[in-house]
Fold:
Amino acid sequence: MAAKLKALILPSEQRLEDVFTPEAIAEADKHFDAVWNRLGREYTADELAAMIGEADVIITSWGSPSITEEMLAKAPKLKMVGHAAGTMKKLVPKAVFDRGIKLFSANKRIALSVAEYCLGVLLSQLRYLHSYNNSLHAGGWKNNDWYGRELTGSTIGIVSASQTARAFLRLLAPFHVKVKLYDPYLTEEAAAELGVEKATLEQVMQCPIISVHAPNLPATKGIITRELLESIPDGAIFINSSRGDVVDEAALLEQLATGRFQAAFDVYPKEPLKADSPMRSLNHVFLTPHIAGAAIQGHQALGGLIIEDMVRNMNGEPTQHEVKAAQWEITA
Amino acid sequence: MAAKLKALILPSEQRLEDVFTPEAIAEADKHFDAVWNRLGREYTADELAAMIGEADVIITSWGSPSITEEMLAKAPKLKMVGHAAGTMKKLVPKAVFDRGIKLFSANKRIALSVAEYCLGVLLSQLRYLHSYNNSLHAGGWKNNDWYGRELTGSTIGIVSASQTARAFLRLLAPFHVKVKLYDPYLTEEAAAELGVEKATLEQVMQCPIISVHAPNLPATKGIITRELLESIPDGAIFINSSRGDVVDEAALLEQLATGRFQAAFDVYPKEPLKADSPMRSLNHVFLTPHIAGAAIQGHQALGGLIIEDMVRNMNGEPTQHEVKAAQWEITA
Structure:
């Protein structure tokens, strides 16, 4: 029997509790010669550089140091990097692909938490549930201004066919919505498979419900322009759970100030959202602090899913969470 | 060609706008000799009694006078009563069935609005979305006390297999939840068809998520007893969108005061909820003013759906919204 691959598992014990179940920790020990971080804090970049030469496998999460090109040069045995978190863009250099190192990310699993967030804020805004809740806590009762709409049968515009958008589409299935989706990389065939209509960004931004799922890439910065924001219909609901930078912030603040449409944001160009942001005083804008992807079960599932996929790869089975070179430029 | 049936359409013009689309008004005129209410207010009971002798058909909604046994005796031609609203219990006496008069209610359509409400408050509470929204509007950011849970894969206890529960189950399909359902009239076969596990009320009340859909009947008054409320697990979410009377109010207030679990109520034993209700000061209790069934599209659909079903009945086709004698005692 071959010796086990040596796996550096970088997350601190505190982080590990969030992203590994006890079962996933046992799986890691079973399949790898696992080296756990017992420092009571995250490793520094220097500490990682000193250890990386022995690593066949590295497992990371939020807070782990990045693997630089210099470190990569000192890691001749490295075969797989698995990230028990979302994007790997800042974690590894693109050069890993030239070395044939396989990458695994838990992005797809986090997307489910994001999708549940999207549906929750959407249903709440359609029916003014949070406004009613606040009103009743302040002594109120019915309010004729808050005669809500149903989601069932609505038209929804979606920006980008990312993993979060796809998870959202799955949750929307029983609502029989009509979906217009903008994604320059989506083929007509793929759109048909998803049950959506391929649309221009202009068409998407004219829908009565709009949800932005664009990846954080140089190419998506500012794609939701002033003109597009001005084209949002009165009475619409505009949700952004992807990245704040995709929207022209100055134009957004101007449009929100008109009160023409409702909005919900989990992300902002700068986080935390500054204390004096004008958004904080607009009741028709639903605000959360970049928590759409963070749910207990969703996070605890991440470590196990990375381990499982690495084991599939070692066994020559098809993987589910591999990040491939071809998608590197167009996904988050 | 036979003369058209004479239909008294009771709702005032103001109410009619809420529950009839222009298309449904045209359908009513097409299929019936329709007598519309042009008084600018609802009819009184005396006015209805004076007209009822000519009626083959009566169409009602919220605010319409009830049809009493005395009126029924003066209405020899009456064949169908359609209610563009929910329960017909207070609208017609049970004696209509002895006369072979057919009843139609839009209860099933309203259930969809209720189901969207249930999913909205549930997703909001699981992730503390409304709490975060208030916190950010008050200058806050992340909060470690509000690390949310996902709905996907959860276990949900449901009280009563009513129309609202069935609509809720349809919306829950993509979440792959395990459902324990208590309903004394539900057979094992019907439970299997719904994809739920038949359970006792005790078992349902021990689930981490509990949603009450019991009809408002003498038999359901107070069925959620003190003992059952005490058995709700810590950290659970308890939702009641049916009727306030099904819960022991004093025991409920005591349990809510402990803060052991979250709750959401759209209904109360007395409505409006009194200004000094202790619930109004509990942040872990989500409150709405009996609006779960009220969404614009849902309400506007009601009139047309009643007309359509009456036409089906006249054509000898199967109906979808008929209220039958056998269900009179066990449904709302």
